[in-house]
Write a structure and sequence with these properties.
Largest sheet: 3 strands, antiparallel
Number of strands: 5
Strand content: 5-15%
Radius of gyration: 18 Å
Strand order of the largest sheet: 3-5-4
Shape: globular
Structural class: mainly alpha
């Protein structure tokens, strides 16, 4: 339930901490975007409603899992590559996990080979903020879905896949290899 994961949604706590906007809940935004990509929800005026496809997915956990894996790594070529590299790094460090700085460095190093011209023209040598933001976007969604566990303080976070995260990572990467 949303109120278990996000206590500020509870009516008794909402008065103490009034919500300013959706940005107060980046994980909820990420889940909503995933559900939209899956075709499970749509917006009607100011409300999100479950579509027929969404109701079918909710009735079948296996179908829901498969649909989520199809869109788990999504976006333009750059974001797709960041997602693939990030999953590969987290899988290679399973079950022990990796540090945020280590993941950030590895993603930057791997992507700098294929995207070097674009990075250097945009950001300068050795600075890869686009990759950092893409990694944060993925981790926000994956943490909300409890596919990854993030512990520790800012800059010293330890990142590790949960068992469900490992299964999703394998399935999502497998799906990416099957695409034309």
């Amino acid at each position: 339930k949303a109120d278990d994961r996000f206590p500020r949604l509870r009516p008794e706590l909402a008065r103490q901490w009034p919500l300013q906007r959706d940005a107060d809940f980046p994980q909820i935004i990420a889940i909503r975007e995933l559900a939209s990509k899956m075709g499970a929800v749509r917006r009607v005026r100011r409300n999100l409603i479950t579509t027929k496809r969404g109701r079918r997915l909710l009735a079948s956990p296996e179908s829901l899992w498969d649909a989520a894996a199809q869109v788990m790594i999504d976006g333009d070529d750059f974001h797709v590559e960041v997602g693939e590299v990030l999953l590969a790094i987290l899988l290679s460090h399973y079950p022990d996990g990796a540090t945020w700085r280590g993941v950030q460095q590895l993603v930057g190093e791997v992507l700098s080979e294929g995207w070097k011209v674009q990075f250097v023209e945009t950001f300068g040598e050795g600075d890869y903020p686009a990759a950092t933001w893409a990694v944060r976007d993925y981790l926000t969604l994956w943490e909300a879905l409890r596919l990854v566990s993030i512990t520790g303080g800012l800059g010293r976070e330890a990142l590790s896949l949960t068992e469900a995260g490992r299964a999703m990572a394998v399935q999502a990467l497998k799906r990416r290899t099957e695409l034309p």
